[in-house]
Write a structure and sequence with these properties.
The chain is an alpha+beta fold. Helix content is 23%, strand content 44%. A 6-stranded antiparallel β-barrel has the order 1-2-3-6-5-4. It is globular and about 35 Å long.
Length: 107
């Protein structure tokens, strides 16, 4: 694993929080450690409820369980539930090391 991927993993583990990914029909769910940076000033001006949630997770949990995040999945972060609009894999030298999740909603 490269230095960049190791640094990313440590950041997610240190500053992250527990989130739950699940299919809409609840046929599968997975608890993950995710990192979502705080909202930017421009997002606060528009209202946090409208801003997308950008979350980073490692591939540790997804690789062990075989769960692949996909558009339309639900992401629960504390009391809020978001809908994934995009789930992009992050690779390090050809090895899946994490996921970038973009979600909207927050109800």
């Amino acid at each position: 694993m490269s230095v960049g991927a190791s640094r990313r993993r440590r950041q997610i583990q240190r500053a992250g929080r527990v989130m739950v990914l699940s299919r809409v029909d609840l046929s599968a769910s997975l608890t993950v450690q995710g990192y979502a940076p705080p909202p930017q000033v421009a997002q606060l001006a528009e209202g946090v409820g409208k801003a997308p949630l950008l979350a980073q997770i490692t591939a540790d949990e997804t690789n062990r369980s075989g769960y692949t995040p996909r558009k339309g999945d639900q992401l629960r972060d504390g009391p809020r539930t978001y809908t994934l609009t995009d789930a992009s894999p992050v690779y390090d030298r050809g090895t899946l090391c994490g996921w970038s999740l973009i979600a909207s909603g927050g109800s």
